[in-house]
Amino acid sequence: MKKLMLALILVLNVAFGIVSVAGQTVEERLSALEKRVAELERKHVPSEASHAKDDAAADSAQSRRAKMQARYAKDVEKYGKNALREIERLYRTYSRSGQAEDQSLDDLLSRFPAANRTGCAVMYAGQRSKGDAAVKWYKKAIADHGDCLYGDGAIVGAYARFYLAAEYERSGKQKEAESLRKEILDLYPDAVTHRGQPMASILKR
Questions:
Q1: What does each C-alpha distance from 123 to 67, 85, 116, 178 come to in angstroms?
Q2: Which has more pLDDT, 13 or 124?
């Protein structure tokens, strides 16, 4: 039995990187091995905090998917499935144009003013503009398209406030900028950037 234990210890010493000390008894070597195994388990078993973080991320992603589905259903109800293809075509045409304003944007605004993609296009119009023109588009996005969503889960209402706050800050309107950032935290606590980063983590720095 002792020989078997010694052989087992030798194998496990190699596997777990335990260095034997001359004169150690079998019991002492087993005790050292048990401590090493326990140490490895602590390193490789996810903590409760890690599980909680993963669960929160999964819940947030599921919530964003549910919001996207609800927003899609709203467009179907208002315009019908056939119209959604035309909306998508106009949106893609506008996205590729690189212009702040063009005919495809005008068509979206005149024919499908409440469509989800129209809100995304209005946000792009702001990003492609400067100064007062940008402010105009961001304000429109906030007032008329706040519930619109990009495919990656980013919310127009939060993004428009984020960019408008930056415009205000550049023009010295610090109070207005801070007010908008507070609105993001209050109205869109789960909002994310296009890269999936929580906006709250950016704004609270």
A1: 19, 20, 11, 20
A2: 124
What does the alpha-carbon distance between residue 95 and residue 1 come to, in Å, rounded to a whole number? 76
First to last CA, the chain: 62
- Greatest distance between any 2 Cα atoms in the chain: 89
Give the angle subtended at the CA of 128 by the CAs of 134 and 66, to the nearest 5°.
90
Record the tokens describing residue 135, joined without a space.
């402010």
Counting residues of the chain whose pLDDT is more than 90, the rounded percentage is 63
Q: Which of 70, 161, 158 is nearest to 116 (CA)?
A: 70
pLDDT(198) > 60: yes
How does DSSP assign 83-107, residue by residue?
Answer: HHHHHHHHHHHHHHH--SS-HHHHH
